[in-house]
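note to self — DONT lose this again. spent like an hour looking for the file last time. sequence + predicted structure for the chain T wanted, 228 res
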Amino acid sequence: MALTEGRPLPFDRAWAVSHEAAGFDQPESWEPKLKFLRGWAAGTLQAVRADFDDTTQMITLTHPARPSLTAALPKDGVAVVDWLRPLWPESRPAPAALVARRDGGALTDVPDPYVSILSLTSNRILSQRLGQDLSIHRWRGNLWLEGLAPWEEFDLIGKTLAIGEARLNVEQRITRCRATCANPETGRNDADTLATLEEGYGHIDFGVYARVTRPGAIAQGDKVEVLA
């Protein structure tokens, strides 16, 4: 995989599904996540799995309560919206359209083109505190690091990471929402991640955001070096 300077992970939220109250047909640039279907509003969406082929632009969606769907993006946007509709609460504005930014950017949680970096150690520590294994998919992370001390990722803020050929500046913590309380296998809320973080550590942060400052290829198993 190749990282691009000043860009998020390739294909990370290149598309999103807007709802009827979003106020646009296609977003010109970044828009707040409250204008889209998201796990914060409906935990059952957390159990959606998307397998994407970046060569054919085909996506396969699966969910324990829905038949699988294979669609071409963005051509089959209506089919994607219809597939998601039963998983979205009727009390909220109805799903409207599959959208992409006209400027080619990503529809990520924050306006900055960040890559999220998370720690497998911290996930294990939090799992132990909760008394259950937490799937890494609860956190929707881009890059997972092994070998950090518990919560050491927060100490990386202000430093540069060398991963493969790329360089990333770590800039801020990621504050979490209740979407992480939902099990990504079932879509049911079964772990109070936010209360456990708050009670145990005095915050509701998990992972950090980093900005790509030097492009280059990265691969699973690459050594990570912390630069001053």
